[in-house]
Amino acid sequence: MNYPSRRAMLLGSMCALGGCSTLSSLNAAATPLDTYDLLPVSGSKKGARSARTLLVAQPQASAALTSDRIMIKPAPASITYLPDARWSDEVPAVVRSLLIRSISETGRIAYVGRSDAGPIPDKALLTRIDAFEVNQLADTSLEARVDINLTVVNDADQRIVASRSFTQTAAVAGDTPTQIVEIFQRVMNVLLPEMADWAIRQV
Hints:
Layout: H1 6-16, H2 19-30, E1 34-36, E2 50-56, E3 60-61, E4 69-75, E5 78-87, H3 91-104, E6 109-114, E7 123-136, E8 142-154, E9 160-172, H4 177-202
Parallel strand pairs: 1-5, 2-6, 2-7, 3-7, 4-7
Antiparallel strand pairs: 4-5, 7-8, 8-9
């Protein structure tokens, strides 16, 4: 007589308890997601060189944005995430890395780095991410939107030197991860040089 294996009995029991759907969910959760990164874009390399230092604080963002998932908003009050895809890090960390590298690559400032490392700064750059998402518009077309506020403060007395918001949108041709990431890169190609040049002027 053939007896079922312990593994078969276990799987059968789980299915009987409704565990088959749970198993499917667990298997789906364990499937690796495609990972995407964005590239820095240097600000202008022309202009005066400064001996000052700038440290970039971890950006502030909503709980929904403090994630490595690519946010999709099918309606203004609705949030979901692109399946099978993610950023290389949580969005605030990605934005901070892009800012640091885009400012540093100009060669116009003595040191720029993270606020949790490096020398005592002359200035600090505070960042608030208000949007880093794909919105579905009324006509069902898709639009990528990035909205970032930058504030430069004196490290010595915490006095605000300047503050400015940077916003850019671009139409998304399709709904595949590659198409969406390409549009985010196009948006950042505009914003990063602007933000880098503005920050350097405040230092």
